[in-house]
Amino acid sequence: MLEFTDKLVIAAGIFGVAFSMSGCKQSEIDCVAGNKQPESCDLYTAVGTESSPMENDVIIMGDSLWDLGSPYGAIPLNLIERSKKTYLELARSGAHTNYIRDIEIPKIPNYNGQGLDPDPTVKTIIVNGGANNLKEPCKVDLENNINVDEGTYSTACTDAFTVAVTEAEEIISLLSAIDSVENIVWTGPQYFPVSVVSENLIDKTVGELSSLCSDDLTEKCTYVDLTQAPMWGPDDASIYLYDDIHVNVAGAELIGGQVWSILESIGAYR
What we know:
This protein is α/β, with parallel strands linked by helices. The chain has a single domain, classed as SGNH hydrolase (Rossmann fold). Helices cover 34% and strands 8% of the residues. It has a 6-stranded parallel β-sheet with strand order 1-6-5-4-2-3. Helix 8 links the parallel strand 5 (183-187) and strand 6. The protein is globular and about 50 Å long. The model is unreliable at 1-14 and 16-53 (pLDDT under 50).
């Protein structure tokens, strides 16, 4: 955002051994090291070295789940270390699903909107999205501790949720139409410390997004359910940054491990 040889893996928000810096541009080193603000790193590319050239077969898209962390891009860096590959990251902090659809997807190498890929290097896409759509429309609901059935959420929150799910489906369809894409991995939300009053909304999101990764829509899509992983409850603040949303290295290890296990299970790395 899914079987690795014939599926696209999408990972999403509410909705060499160690990585070598040799041969990297200074701007890219700064992004990896966290010396730049994320706005300047939204097109951060994990470049390769002479012995390990740049690869575009895996692309990461979405929002600050990938873009932020300590250091910036903590989860993508964890995946890079696990895979011994280089990834192209197009994620942008604050991105709504329409931004992912309209801005990030067209930045995929050789993408022309027609499902054609004259240079078929892109094989797997890891993507997330949807949390930023709900942040403001559902703010009053969450501040009032509404954590019950969906019918109790405000119209603004419910409408925003509907839009997020609809646009997520459009994202999956657009990615699936790219000829070279074999795997889409959509990573759903986890229970983080500030989600105590929104667990039902998160559960609803998981239900809707996971259903999009069904054979009814595309066989390329696999859903990563982070709510099933250990240590992602409201009391596990030690793996999060001060905002209680984005993760540190320990959190990146957990989420990276969860995503990696899916990639391995579908044969994405062969």
